[in-house]
Design a protein that fits this description.
heterodimer, A: 419 residues, alpha/beta, D-Maltodextrin-Binding Protein, domain 2, six-stranded mixed β-sheet, four-stranded mixed β-sheet, 14 strands, 15% strand, B: 303 residues, mainly alpha
Chain lengths: 419, 303
Amino acid sequence: MFKKSLLSMATVIGIAAALAGCSNSDGENESADSGSTQTVSFWAPFSGPDGPKMKEIVDEFNSSQEDVKVNLQIVPQSEYYTTIDLSLNGQEDSPDLMIMHGDQIATYANQNILKDMEPILGDTINKEDYHPTAWNGVEVDGALYGVPLDIHPLMFYYNKDMFEAAGLDPEAPPTNREEFVEMAKQLTNAENGEWGYAVPTLWPQQFIFPTIVYQNGGELISDGKVNYASDEAVEALQFQSDLIFEHKVSPENVQQDGELTLFLQGKSAMHMNGPWMLNQFEESNINFGVAPVPQLGTEQDAVFANSHNFVIPETVQDEAKIEAITTFLNFAGENGQAWAESGQAPVSKAVYESDEFNEMTQQPQVAKQFDYAQFAPAVENWGPLSDPLYSAVNEVLLGSMEPQEALEQAQEEAKSRLQ
Amino acid sequence: MKSKSKLSAFTSFLFVLPYLVMFILFLVAPLIYGIYISFHDWNLISPIRPFVGFENYTQIFTSGTSENKIFLNGLTNTLQFVVYSVPLLVVIGLLLAMLVNSLPSKIRGFFRTAYFLPYAISVSIIAVLWLWILDTNSGLMNNALQALGLNAIPWLTKLPYAWISIVIATVWWTIGFNMIIFINALNEVPEEMYEAADIDGATGFQKFIHITLPSIRPIMIFVIITSTIASFNVYGQPYLMTGGGPGDSTEVLLMGIVQQAFQLRQMGVASAMAMLMSLIMISISVGQFLLSRGKKGRGNEHA
């Protein structure tokens, strides 16, 4: 999921209270007015600095032609899926088009809520115009349920000033495990409270841990079965634990967001997080670099990613409306540079292969990881299903359990949740 | 005469009406709807929601199910928090009230506001503030400890510190409310009683035990019950400060319910858990009330 920071997470709390009656407030669905103009209501969770960028694309589209008008409705990230659920559930006031994270698609597709895109694709939307990996993110049991907008994989950030101070080349971030550990040791000066790489014990382990498991050639779900305690997973967790307790390149007892605080204070030289952190890092005064995640595993290039995709609810049946939507999707694909300015990397070739895109700092580094990006297992409710896993990761990285034992326990617990 | 009393009954009813409407609309109606949902297999995004009777409840009470584990673990942790926080919320609230009340009246208003202020801040801000203060590796508290030559304390990542931190943050956040209520209660105690006690040569402590405490008993009961209910509803502090960690040892009941409802979209089970939680809260409150009433029988002279 696309958690931006503690503060944005905090709004989630509001949901508990607002259980009843928080939809129905957006009456934008005037159906097919005046016959000539098609109105498309479009929902997106972009309540951060990415919102205005999506608005730019929509405005540009609306002024480029007369036939279709897209109404963008931003719903705060923390309430987004609840709002969608409540609107789809009432079968009224639901949007014609919406953004959905890749890891949510399986859940909704299995409830037959999303339109199978296959009939639309090929005709007006050309699959070849997008990076092939992106289509993996919208596929459930062989069918495609969305048109991809971007892929946001785990990224590697590092403090160039600390690299220089440690006698390392600030333009040569580590690319594999050996370099990573070696550099981390050189960057660590525990007496001064300077660390090579503070290991997070909570979020964003949801991106880091699977990245290393996939790099080890492992899987977290195999053939629909929970597979948390595989050799690859145990190794991935042991490696992270060793960074803290063996190599001592990370402080112990890193709390929620503690590794982020240390990176922002210039006390942790390396940091892994999502591309959405770009704004925050640019506003801080650290001299940072960004690169693809080094190969921290042992087998293959891989990085864990989530994605933003356009999906259409099954309830949208009107041919003319669907055509209007596809016109917009084509436009958004070709004119997605504005989306790149939000820090994300669009998966449309028209954007990520352009010169303008490749002159940006972070975004081309994101796109470099497209080829081997891997998504959350296509199972329902991946978030809650993986909760026991991240409790185990937490216990191990706080030094209170051994990897094998913790992961086996998590596996048992997740199994009981899969029923 | 008769019509007059009818009229006054009617005007009284009018005064109660706004509250009654709100009460029914936002409390009774959702509660009944919640009970209704709890007897159904209610997936938020599925149109088919069959009636399942008590199945959601039996699921919660069958050991080995994930619902059972989430509920029991959440309940145990929530009860722990209640036990740690309520006595402090009551005792410190009363002490602060007495402290502020004994200040010269010129600065009393300032301190009353200062202590009350945190209560007006949202929990997300409170959590971020305390995260920064308590950060193990770069926080204010540990920097201070280390400057004094002491060891850093893992405030948020090890037990029992994680609970201590959550309780400290909670007390700091909400103590102002209890304090204000106690201040009002203290001001209600007739001055003559203290004067009479002075003549009898009572010490300050004796006056507190024999005059102050019995006089504010009804308010004390109110504060204990509301603090217990508020502590039962703990959510934001552990969610934001510890993420339920270490492991799941500070994962409270509401976190589990919210997860069932909005991540798993299982409104049926979530509602059943919420109903059980309300039942437990109601029983505890009623118990507290009866217990305090039973005691009152002996010391009735102040009533």
